Amino acid sequence: MVLTKDMVAGLVSTGGSARVDADVAPIFKAGDRVTGRNINPVGHTRLPRYVRGHTGVVDRDHGVFSFPDGSSVGQDKPQHLYSVVFEAEELWGPDAADNFKVYVDMWDDYLEPAP
Amino acid sequence: MASYKHTAALPDTVLRVKALESLLTEKGLIDPAALDELIDTYENRIGPRNGAQVVARAWADPEYKKRLLDDGTSAILELGFSGVQGEDMVIVENTPSVHNMIVCTLCSCYPWPVLGLPPVWFKSAPYRSRAVIDPRGVLKEFGVELDPDIEIRVWDSTAETRYMVLPLQPEGTDGMSEDELADIVQRDSMIGTAVVTAP
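YS: structure for the whole thing
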């Protein structure tokens, strides 16, 4: 189906949420210490390299969302998405710039419990 | 067409886009009128003035601010803004001790319904790579020098949630109307690379 001019306004104002209405249990909760899994998928992923192997704290649970690593190959695996906060020193070492944190949105499959 | 010297777009890229557009049109895969409508929508109708209205409302109405921080998407819809790239909005509030800034290190995720399309620098590799390792240095280049005591929180839009900063209301603006407040809120303050100053 080709998008026509009269369809544009509806499309633009509606969009399409990647939130999934599915009863999937969260593996983590706010306050949990978690480590970004050191995975290196050949295909699509939204897991930034700079958090792989690094430990942060779950700041909030955004709810259940489509999982891009799966949906990009037609095999979605909806799961909880969290905002995980990392201290600058954890990511960039003892010489990291002062007094900042980085919040990264991460799905269950990107995380493991911190040791 | 915009002058090239102010953007990172290269003439080669423009030519490639033109060639693709011609080909897709010839094959009947796109309707050029729909493309024009999309471009007009984001050039003239949807832009950072929307976000400025949201910020002004939050400053003027504490109850609205509470709803905005609690459920950004719904509160933004109250003002009539919704849709593509704003389906799941999270608003992060600047305070005297916390400054937030937004980046998408993986690509160019940006809250279109409230801020329009992202500026070229937001999509550039230097901003995307440096915002998460040296936010203070980046802010300095934007002319923002924060007190070392202020904690910077960088939000990397790695998923489908879209972030917008609720800037700190400048002192001495309490008596201003919502429209007047919206006028002093510029785009970069809602990305977190600027602060709002009193007029």
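YS: worth flagging: Chain B is about 45% helix and 10% strand.
IM: good catch. Also Chain B has a mean pLDDT of 94.
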